[in-house]
């Protein structure tokens, strides 16, 4: 990324500003990752990652001070995930962070919760329906299920027929190739009879 792609102005709380933003070196989305790391540290430790009695002290600690780590009772993976790398080129990106195994596991749990909530919501809606509306819904669901099964049957049948057709084509091709080879041999014997020494005569 060229320097022309980097932002240079800033506003907000210094506790969450990245070193490159405070140093007026220009910054990009990696600066947001730094801010996220500051928030993560604050959630775990209940205090700012970089603290000071006044603005300048906080800025100096962010730009020149050591990078804090989480207490020992937190997992190694969470410490690795900490996004407080001073050099933005070495800092994790959002895509890098999302690839962590425990993040993936959390996303799966979230998806399961979402599906469960959707099921509860649908069940609640059904309970509000009149008996006639419930009957209509059940008929519609049964019709959808039949259509889904029929679609799967058609797709399976198509794959089966396609496979069978390819086998027949392959057999036909080999049969034609064998016949062509046989005709070619007969043709060569007819037009190029062998001499006494067994070699074709010219």
TrEMBL record:
Organism per entry: Electrophorus electricus (Electric eel)
Residue stretches spanning the membrane: none
EC number: 2.7.11.1
Example of a GO MF term: ATP binding
Known catalytic reactions: L-threonyl-[protein] + ATP = O-phospho-L-threonyl-[protein] + ADP + H(+); L-seryl-[protein] + ATP = O-phospho-L-seryl-[protein] + ADP + H(+)
Tagged with keyword Transferase: yes
Family annotation (SMART domains): S_TKc
Gene3D superfamilies: Transferase(Phosphotransferase) domain 1
Lineage: Eukaryota, Metazoa, Chordata, Craniata, Vertebrata
Name of the protein described by the UniProt record: non-specific serine/threonine protein kinase
Cross-referenced InterPro entries: Kinase-like_dom_sf, NEK_Ser/Thr_kinase_NIMA, Prot_kinase_dom
PANTHER family linked to this entry: CAMK FAMILY PROTEIN KINASE (PTHR44899), NIMA-RELATED KINASE 11 (PTHR44899:SF8)
Keywords, alphabetical: ATP-binding, Kinase, Nucleotide-binding, Serine/threonine-protein kinase, Transferase
Entry keyword annotation includes ATP-binding: yes
Every Protein kinase domain range: 1-103
């Amino acid at each position: 990324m060229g320097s022309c792609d980097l932002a240079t102005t800033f506003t907000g709380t210094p506790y969450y500003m990245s070193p490159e933003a405070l140093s007026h070196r220009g910054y990009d989305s990696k600066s947001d990752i730094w801010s996220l790391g500051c928030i993560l540290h604050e959630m775990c430790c209940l205090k700012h990652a970089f603290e000071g009695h006044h603005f300048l002290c906080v800025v100096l600690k962010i730009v020149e001070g050591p990078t804090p780590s989480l207490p020992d009772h937190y997992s190694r993976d969470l410490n690795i995930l900490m996004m407080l790398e001073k050099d933005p080129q070495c800092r994790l990106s959002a895509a890098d962070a999302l690839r962590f195994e425990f993040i993936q596991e959390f996303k799966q749990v979230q998806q399961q919760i979402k599906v469960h909530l959707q099921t509860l919501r649908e069940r609640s809606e059904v309970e509000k329906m009149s008996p006639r509306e419930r009957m209509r819904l059940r008929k519609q669901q049964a019709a959808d299920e039949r259509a889904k099964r029929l679609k799967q049957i058609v797709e399976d049948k198509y794959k089966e027929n396609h496979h069978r057709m390819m086998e027949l084509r392959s057999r036909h091709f080999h049969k034609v190739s064998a016949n062509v080879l046989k005709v070619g041999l007969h043709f060569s014997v007819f037009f190029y009879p062998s001499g006494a020494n067994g070699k074709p005569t010219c």
